Amino acid sequence: MLHRNLEPHRCCHSHLDQITKNLHQNKAYICRWLSRLVCPKSYFPQPSQGSKTKSNRLPDLFADVTHGLQQGRSIDPFTNSYINQQIFFGNYGLGTSVVLFSGKQLSNLVKQNQLGQQAAKMELQQTNDDIMLNVLLAYLQVLNNKEQLTQAQNQFELTRKQVARLHILDSQGAIIPAQLYDLKGQLAGDQLLVINAGNAMETAKLTLAQLMNMPYDKNMQVEQITAADLGAKYEGTTENIYNQAVAQLAIIK
User: Fold this and answer.
1) 101 pLDDT exceeds 50?
2) Rounded-to-integer distance, Cα 1 and Cα 123, Å
3) What confidence tens digit (pLDDT) does each residue in 172-225 have?
């Protein structure tokens, strides 16, 4: 470190105003000089952790300015005797330091931060992939529950028609009453299945809306998958599927 101590100045009380003025002028000059040397913090964008680690390899530059005033009984720095007067003094320093070797600590820390940044990107991609897959599964669940609701409604309607037919036969005495009562019990069970299937479909819609970050709408309709779509031939091979998964899915990377 380079360091320079300015020689203390002895003065009498009559020169106090002039020395004080010079002292403030020197201090203002040093402050302007340091402001040119050190850039404002807001001038540069905030670096990442990896950039901060790399910057640790660069030399450090620092400066210090000290001014003081001794008043009353003190020791004269020239004669080493006691005096009773005011003494102004100033110290100015400029230093630098650089790390020559630290057992590859900085290099390993840079690699660690780079790997950590890559891992964070992978975690972000994994989150995006999970959301995409969850939305796809929720969409298929809505279609599945809708199909089950349609089947339950069709079964309920068929059972209801059979109950109406048995009512006519029972009124004419063509069947025993137990057959009608059994079919009415089946009709009540089919009605319960319709209610459960409807609740399951609404729950699947709610899950899909939450995953898509959109408000729930009871009248929300999803596009159906037709038989033509299911019957389309997929031209991709196992190798192509694997290569696409490696390139896109973070869990495989």
Assistant:
1) yes
2) 46
3) 888 898 999 999 999 999 999 999 999 999 999 999 999 988 999 988 888 888
Contact between 81 and 75 under an 8 Å Cβ cutoff? The reply is yes
Q: For residue 153, what are its two tokens? A: 């409604």
CB within 8 Å of 148: residues ≥ 6 apart: 197, 200, 201
Tell me: do 141 and 221 sit in the same domain: yes
**15 plus 95 within the same structural domain:** yes
Structural domain containing residue 205: 107-231
pTM of the model: 0.54
For residue 65, the model assigns a pLDDT of 87
Nearest to 17 by CA among 86, 78, 99: 86
133 and 84 in a common domain: no
Q: Extract the runs of DSSP E, i.e. beta strands, from the chain.
A: 2-5, 9-10, 60-70, 73-75, 82-84, 87-97
